[in-house]
Write a structure and sequence with these properties.
- The structure holds 2 protein chains of 2 kinds.
- Chain A is mainly alpha-helical.
- Chain A has one domain.
- Chain A is built from 6 helices and no strands.
- The longest helix of chain A has about 30 residues.
- Chain A starts with a helix and ends with a helix.
- Chain B is mainly α.
- Chain B has one domain.
- In chain B, helix 2 packs across helix 3.
- The chains are: A mainly alpha, B mainly alpha.
Chain lengths: ~140, ~140
């Protein structure tokens, strides 16, 4: 059953992205262009999502198990470090260059022609690159210890 | 100056509520954060019993335009970036979201909903970088 709910969540998430206009990079860039003609829509998308999210996560936080009885797997990290900030800055720069973040790129794969496919492929390469760099630096840290 | 022609508050809010509902279903039934970069990135480091729900969520996300298309015509999408820019942007988003442990969905929507200061700082950082990048590309470069 948890496979079915995961599929449904992905589907509704994607439909939300399409309805909200976030699968259109021009609209996302319209939000990021504060000095130009500014389109505040993205803030309303986040506002609507967070409004529902506050209720859902507020309830989830009080539960030890999911509605299916499995363990909750919420993030435990609370620290703010260089990785978090530098990584997020790099992500934001890429987001501002193309107008795609991971969700909208995936939700455009079958309908958006070759451009979201190029972006997604490069994004996957970037993720693999991270895994390699992360492994190398972890091995380096171990050999120093 | 607000772009009143393109500003769509109601569909933005409605779509946002759907995204929030999807995140709600995912946390309450699957016990996990609906963070796209994390779900996708985890596929690249396969662990036992960890692949099914990731693939199912991503399959739903990728299939969403097909389902939407059954009911209504898909909205127009304009990608101004050329192929080279898309490659650079994709690499930055791939590496950046993994180092930063999240993107617009995991930090922006779910993290802020969990009232996580860590996610709030990540969101501020990627928003700031997005604003600065678009400013430089559109207004500062000749």
């Amino acid at each position: 059953m948890h496979i079915v709910t995961a599929l449904m969540a992905g589907l509704v998430f994607g439909i939300g992205l399409i309805v909200s206009g976030m699968t259109n990079p021009a609209k996302v860039l319209g939000f990021l262009d504060l000095a130009g003609r500014w389109d505040p829509s993205l803030a309303f998308v986040m506002g609507g999502a967070i409004l529902v999210g506050l209720v859902a996560f507020g309830y989830a936080r009080k539960r030890e198990r999911t509605l299916f009885g499995a363990a909750m797997r919420l993030p435990t990290a609370t620290h703010v470090d260089r990785r978090l900030v530098m990584g997020s800055l790099a992500f934001g720069a890429g987001w501002g260059l193309a107008g795609y973040c991971p969700g909208p790129a995936l939700a455009s794969l079958v309908s958006g022609g070759v451009k979201p496919a190029i972006f997604t492929l490069a994004m996957l390469v970037g993720m693999v690159l991270y895994d390699i760099l992360d492994r190398v630096s972890a091995a380096g840290a171990r050999s120093q210890a | 100056m607000i772009d009143w022609i393109h500003f769509t508050p109601w569909t933005a809010l409605g779509g946002g509520v759907l995204i929030g509902l999807a995140a709600a279903v995912f946390v309450l039934f699957n016990g996990r954060i609906a963070g796209i970069s994390g779900i996708l990135g985890g596929l690249l480091r396969p662990a036992r019993g960890d692949m099914g729900w990731r693939l199912a969520f991503l399959a739903g996300l990728v299939a969403s335009p097909v389902c939407y298309g059954l009911v209504s015509a898909l909205p127009e999408a304009t990608v101004a970036a050329d192929e080279g820019t898309l490659v650079v942007a994709g690499l930055l988003v791939g590496v950046g979201t993994r180092y930063g442990a999240g993107c617009t969905s995991g930090h922006g929507v779910c993290g802020i909903s969990r009232r996580s200061p860590r996610s709030l700082i990540a969101t501020a950082a990627f928003m700031l970088a997005g604003f600065v990048t678009v400013y430089v590309v559109r207004h500062a470069l000749p």
